[in-house]
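so my prof wants the structure for this chain in the tokens format not the other one, which i didnt know existed until like an hour ago. anyway here's the sequence
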Amino acid sequence: MTSTTQRAELQNKIWKIANDVRGSVDGWDFKQFVLGALFYRFISENFTNYIEGGDDSVKYATFSDDVVSPAAKDDAVKTKGYFIYPSQLFANVAKTANTNPNLNTDLKAIFDAIESSANGYPSEPAIKGLFADFDTTSTRLGNTVENKNSRLASVLKGVEELNFGDFEDNKIDLFGDAYEFLISNYAANAGKSGGEFFTPQHVSKLIAQLAMHKQDKVNKIYDPAAGSGSLLLQAKKHFDNHIIEEGFFGQEVNHTTYNLARMNMFLHNINYDKFNIALGDTLRNPMYSTL
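here's what i got, hopefully its the right format
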């Protein structure tokens, strides 16, 4: 599948989910729920792949939570940066989404648990607040629990149907593309922008290629206006067969895109100890002036 085909498929399916499900929810707000569900699905699949280790006979989603030992959890958090119990996986939650009367509060508890699993570990700064924009108890989803659950179930089911194979093999920046597409479709009507637009990916790719031309190793890669992390990801793709010694650094002033950049790092298997994305205004308060 080419990048053009993949991007068109993504946009068509994302737009269908957003348009069919959101109802009276402002599109500008609703995009957060679509993106949150996307991230939840893929971080669940990523963690499942890690646990199963390529063994087709192991089906982590079928395990009981109580078979997970404290030692196994500790080891997983040290390696992956977070932990997800089998019952908390996207696949298991989506399976019963249409009939779960506590869906919105269950999701909140799951997101809180995933984030808190990193508490006290080196990965805590990388994980903390990742689901902040996916507020499943928000009145923006509806005035009653039933309304909230109905919309959340529809979003989960819509995202469940998306089929893009292994996200690491995607020729596009899945989340950056989804976010940019949703914003561009809603911004004009919402009258909002806030600088929430991204460098086109072909430009990011060219910049990455120019920056690392004829280099066989790089100490650090840094983007002072990281956005969704597109430039950092292009650098990774361009330099996959070489050495990036100390990893990926970036700073982003917008809280939502800051979270998106951190999500993107995880989703492209850049481990928590290989990236550091800071929240803040680089011009007024540069976090990495000594890099």
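also thought this was worth mentioning. The mean pLDDT is 83.
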